[in-house]
Write a structure and sequence with these properties.
Elements: H1 10-23, E1 29-34, H2 40-53, E2 60-64, H3 66-79, E3 88-91, H4 95-103, E4 108-112, H5 116-123, E5 131-135, H6 146-153, E6 160-165, H7 176-184, H8 193-200, E7 201-204, E8 209-212, H9 216-224, E9 228-231, H10 233-236, E10 241-249, H11 253-265, E11 267-270, E12 275-278, H12 282-294, E13 296-298, E14 305-307, H13 311-322, E15 328-331, H14 335-344, E16 349-350, H15 355-362, E17 368-371, H16 373-376, E18 388-391, H17 398-408, E19 417-425, H18 429-450
Parallel strand pairs: 1-6, 1-9, 2-4, 2-5, 3-4, 5-6, 10-19, 15-17, 15-18, 16-17, 18-19
Antiparallel strand pairs: 7-8, 11-12, 13-14
Enzyme class: hydrolase
Keywords: ATP-binding, Helicase, Hydrolase, Nucleotide-binding
EC number: 3.6.4.12
Length: 455
Amino acid sequence: MLLTRDMMHPYQNRASDFICDIAGNVAGGCALWLDMGLGKTVSTATAASDMLDDFSVGRVLIIAPKRVALTTWPLELRNWEHLMHLRFSVIAGSAKQRTAAILQRADIHIISRDNVQWLVRMVGRQWPWDMVIIDESSSFKSQSSNRWKAMKAVLRTITRVVELSATPAPQGLIDLWAQFYLLDKGERLGATESAFKKRWFMEDREKHLIVPRDFAEGEIHSLVSDITMHMSAEDYLDMPEKIINKIEVDIPRERMLQYQNFERDMILEMEELDLEVEAENAATLTGKLLQFSNGAMYVNEARDWEVLHDEKIEALKEIVESHNGYPILVAYNFKSDLARLQAAFPQAVVMDDDPDTQLRWNNGEIPILLTHPASSGHGLNLQKGSNVIVWFGLNWSLELYLQLNGRLYRQGQKQKTVVIHHIVARHTVDERVLAVVGKKEATQKELLEAVKMVA
């Protein structure tokens, strides 16, 4: 049965009206920061439909993560009665297939963000879309990325840009300039990123970081609030309680001494394994230390790995046992983690692109689902399968962290609580990752609160 427009929630209509009101301005664009589960897809599609119907825009391009572009948007356009009249074409497949999809007569074209550079190169000055919707706009947060440069090249031919995100500032305020430039061509946050940084940031020379000045947060919030709407799931949905749990493990003493020496000297010598590993720089060292904390480390360029300890594996076994066979979603970081998890838990299934895997999970047929956060972060509904997440390997990305947690912590969750376990190796880089992600989340929450609209 098709869904009808009168079935949309009031907050979804408000979001749609906001897009029409703000993006309807010839000047430009708006940002819709809606928590996961609030239905930003149908709200935005409804606004696009209204603007197409009243001839405010002629053709619409939707840019989204691959899975979302291929499944979520087409499904939403087919599910709602008031959107059924829209002709849409998905630009995907081989170069020949993508070209054919561009030429197909349609009101809306949908493309994966990975193909944006190709699209701009292909279409060039004949760019036909006067409205562009960027789903998960934080993937355009870097002005040095090819996709951002491609969008900037055709920006003058686009009259309306709508950006959608649940995590607009995963690394902090520094992420905002590139996204807002695509909305207003530098009107609010400056014509260049260097000017943006000079005005609101300073260098912390001890930590080798760019940090916001004391007044930056308030000023930036104020400047972007007129074209930005945020809605929090807690304000509109019956959300489950979120329980955060840290499970600490101790690396064996001998291994811990090796870890500390490696952290200090950037060289790891293990006579019992007849190996020596050298970290070329600080970034490489941090990655190696994360691997060490998880229990296995790559030891050469061929990415061969050696097992160093099983403390996290044993902790996960205890978690699995304590949940008495109840399904658990496990996040891993490295392929070495995945191999060890598969060996330790032969009943586990790896998340893939097969829709049947998602269906089996939601039907309770998979006891342990192993996933990399980047593979399950966007466009998946996994909340019917479980309410338990275990972070076996921690990740620096706030966006991936929140997006994966949001697969279970969302409307439609059958349980009253969602439990998020973090397995943390004590006195290791794990503790720093958890602290940094927590700080990033706090900064983003302050930004979202500043532009929140509550009915």
